[in-house]
């Protein structure tokens, strides 16, 4: 594709809106500079949440792991430290009984006056699941997630006590449950397995992807929306896509930073997670590594070497370039149908500041232009990134002066 291909007409697949997600970190540890402690640095945490609020982020994800801080408690703290940010609780169904999770989420929603969101993590690694006593095989875990979604929604809306006798959960006389602030809480589902698509398409309010090449993502969006329509849904799941942008004043400077970063990240990953090698169990990581093996660079600014350096352990594909190039790349994904864009960096707090100053305003300016005029501006054509002649040279010249 060339810059000339970016015509004024808004693609029929484009989302008319975009909201931004970050990930809240409880301490200064980063993949560039790991800190041995896993504790919460309260001063840092407060500053981080304030940075997201002031930077204009719409949501923040509170991640979950067997050795991490509890996502529910962190989400409650975020809610009280902010006025507008919507906390997304990452939740594994094996860790909290569904009626209890519904109660906890509704409580968070009441405390934040309707800002709560939940992201269900079915679990893609048997060893990590076993650390908290979950020995179900992966196919059964997705079936459990499906039952879990139904029970969350029923717990929030059922007007009278009800019984349940399912494959994974059984109880009698529950309810009416504690209600959310005003309406049912949005439920996000992610994953790349067939089971994930079936459950997410049929039942998710949001379906999440890691950053991948545009054409591949579009086919995956078509797939999840096709499942949604086949299940009788009239409201399709919103699409959430995640990137790790590396930005600087110019594309050339951004690539110098990117080459430095990937070297440091790879070295630290080898030290911190020496056993996280081999073929990952989860399909999302397998897919990310397949893209990385095929090419390091895709589309306008998508770089996969960061995924290869960490064995695709989590969302790890980067967008590299100037703020304008990266904003244009994000708009490419909006044009494919993404309405939720998660961006989090490698220098976590500093990157959150920079994204709020330089990325979010550019994307929102283009969205405002589209709403006002009914067409795209020339912004994407003016910042071609890899669609232009010089960008790939920067990408392959790590020692450029």
From TrEMBL:
Instruction: List residues of the Luciferase-like domain.
Output: 36-339
**What SUPFAM superfamilies is this protein classified in?**
Bacterial luciferase-like
Chain residue ranges for the region called Disordered: 373-392
GO molecular function terms here?
monooxygenase activity; oxidoreductase activity, acting on paired donors, with incorporation or reduction of molecular oxygen
Gene3D superfamilies in alphabetical order: Luciferase-like domain (3.20.20.30)
Listed A to Z, the keywords are: Flavoprotein, FMN, Monooxygenase, Oxidoreductase
Listed CDD domains:
Alkanesulfonate_monoxygenase (cd01094)
Which InterPro entries is this protein grouped with?
Luciferase-like_dom (IPR011251), Luciferase-like_sf (IPR036661), SsuD_RutA_monooxygenase (IPR050172)
Which range is the signal sequence, renumbered to this chain?
A: none
Name by which UniProt lists this protein: Luciferase-like domain-containing protein
The organism encoding this protein is: Paractinoplanes tereljensis
Q: What is the lineage of its organism?
A: Bacteria, Bacillati, Actinomycetota, Actinomycetes, Micromonosporales
């Amino acid at each position: 594709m060339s810059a000339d291909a970016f015509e004024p007409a808004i693609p029929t697949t484009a989302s008319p809106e975009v909201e931004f997600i970050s990930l809240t970190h409880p301490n200064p540890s980063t993949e560039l500079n790991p800190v041995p402690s896993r504790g919460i640095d309260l001063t840092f945490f407060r500053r981080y949440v304030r940075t997201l609020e002031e930077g204009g982020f719409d949501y923040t994800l509170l991640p979950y792991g067997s050795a991490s801080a509890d996502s529910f408690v962190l989400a409650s703290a975020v809610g009280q430290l902010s006025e507008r940010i919507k906390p997304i609780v990452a939740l594994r169904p094996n860790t909290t009984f569904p009626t209890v999770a519904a109660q906890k989420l509704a409580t968070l929603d009441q405390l934040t006056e309707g800002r709560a969101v939940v992201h269900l993590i079915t679990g893609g690694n048997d060893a990590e699941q076993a650390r908290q006593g979950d020995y179900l095989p992966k196919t059964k875990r997705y079936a459990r997630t499906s039952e879990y979604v139904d029970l969350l929604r029923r717990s929030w809306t059922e007007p009278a006590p009800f019984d349940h006798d399912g494959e994974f959960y059984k109880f009698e006389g529950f309810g009416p449950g504690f209600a959310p602030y005003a309406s049912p809480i949005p439920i996000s589902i992610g994953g790349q397995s067939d089971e994930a698509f079936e459950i997410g398409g049929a039942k998710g309010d949001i379906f999440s992807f890691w950053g991948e090449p545009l054409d591949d993502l579009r086919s995956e969006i078509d797939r999840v929306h096709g499942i949604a329509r086949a299940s009788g849904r009239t409201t399709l799941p919103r699409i959430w896509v995640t990137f790790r942008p590396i930005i600087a004043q110019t594309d050339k400077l951004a690539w110098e930073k990117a080459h430095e970063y990937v070297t440091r990240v790879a070295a630290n990953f080898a030290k911190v997670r020496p056993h996280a090698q081999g073929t990952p169990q989860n399909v999302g990581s397998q897919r990310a590594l397949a893209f990385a093996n095929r090419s390091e660079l895709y589309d306008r600014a998508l770089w996969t070497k960061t995924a290869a350096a960490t064995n695709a352990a989590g969302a790890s594909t980067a967008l590299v370039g100037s703020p304008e190039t990266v904003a244009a790349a994000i708009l490419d994904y909006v044009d494919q149908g993404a309405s939720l864009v998660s961006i989090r960096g490698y220098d976590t707090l500093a990157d959150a500041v920079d994204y709020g100053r330089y990325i979010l305003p550019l994307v929102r300016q283009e969205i405002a232009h589209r709403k006002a005029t009914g067409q795209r501006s020339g912004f994407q054509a003016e910042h071609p990134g890899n669609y232009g002649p010089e960008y790939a040279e920067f990408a392959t010249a790590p020692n450029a002066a």
